[in-house]
Amino acid sequence: MNICVFLSAADLDDRYTVPAREFAELLGRGGHTLVWGGSESGLMKVVADGVQEAGGRLVGVSVDFLAAKARKNADEMVIARDLAERKALLLEKSDAIVIMVGGTGTLDEATEILELKKHGKHTKPVVLLNTAGFYDGLREQFQRMEDEGFLPLPLTELVFFAKDGVGALAYLEESAGLQ
């Protein structure tokens, strides 16, 4: 399965890097392909290293203004013209999406992917990997949106919140009929 992971390129502490590495190793050992922003820095590097070292493939989609930070030994690397094209290519090349911890770029990617799913523009499973409760506030906000009628479909059909990588991957594999 080609699994797109949206996540930070920042250097983060162990409470985020250790679970990210564990999830990456699960992907690689499971024979999955990581589709990601292609960066050779921060959490993006941690996940790419873990997937590659565990036997998985890497498909990166960088953007021209970040091309100098792109991983050199990815199995495939595409350089998009801009962030909009990058997001479209990441979605196109993936079978499922996992949103890990990140900043405004990750949040932008997450909300666009969920908006496209809400409107039926894709039906791929989406998981928010809620490492260390990072997305507790967002989950509460989404629940409020559902409760107050802002979502045209149940939150459970839009996104799955996973506490850890094992739960995230199990949900994706079940959604794809691999379990």
Characterise this structure.
- The chain has helices at about 15-30, 40-55, 85-90, 105-120, 135-145, 155-160, 165-175, and strands spanning about 1-5, 35, 55-65, 75-80, 95-100, 125-130, 160.
- With about 180 residues, it is α/β, with parallel strands linked by helices.
- The radius of gyration is 15 Å and the shape is globular.
Query: Given the helix and strand composition, which structural class is it?
Result: alpha/beta
Low-confidence stretches: none
Q: Helix proportion of residues, in percent?
A: 40-55%
* Strand order in the largest sheet: 4-3-2-1-5-6-7
What is the overall pLDDT average? 94
Shape: globular
Number of helices: 7
Counting copies of identical and different chains, the oligomeric state is single chain
Observed structural traits:
18% strand, 7 helices, alpha/beta, single chain, 179 residues, globular
Please write out the topology.
Elements: E1 2-6, H1 14-29, E2 33-36, H2 42-53, E3 57-63, E4 76-80, H3 83-92, E5 96-99, H4 104-118, E6 126-129, H5 136-147, H6 155-158, E7 160-162, H7 165-175
Parallel strand pairs: 1-2, 1-5, 2-3, 3-4, 5-6, 6-7
Please outline what is shown here:
By secondary structure, this protein is an alpha/beta fold. It has helices at residues 14-29, 42-53, 83-92, 104-118, 136-147, 155-158, 165-175; strands spanning 2-6, 33-36, 57-63, 76-80, 96-99, 126-129, 160-162. Helix 1 runs parallel beside helix 2 (42-53).
